[in-house]
Amino acid sequence: MGLMKVFSGSEILASALKTKLEEAGIDVIMKNNNQSNIVLGSASSLAVELFIDESKYGKADPVITDFKISVQ
Q1: What is the percent of the chain where pLDDT is above 90?
Q2: pLDDT of amino acid 72
Q3: Does position 37 have pLDDT exceeding 80, yes or no?
Q4: Long-range Cβ contact pairs of 7-15 (< 8 A, separation 24 or more)
């Protein structure tokens, strides 16, 4: 079992997806790279990443797909 990145994007969208995944019973690890981007002087819209246990991907995929459709 390892971690799998399921999202890279803005902090607002990452937080919203994290909430939806947690409501589905999936533990999520959020890695926020905003501070390092500020220090390095770069502005990145992919500053936040979400990771889940790869064994939970089958359960998470429909949640992620619905979320991506809803924000388009």
Answers
A1: 72
A2: 86
A3: no
A4: 7/48, 7/49, 7/50, 7/64, 8/46, 8/48, 8/49, 8/50, 9/45, 9/46, 9/48, 10/45, 10/47, 10/48, 11/47, 11/48, 13/71, 14/48, 14/49, 14/50
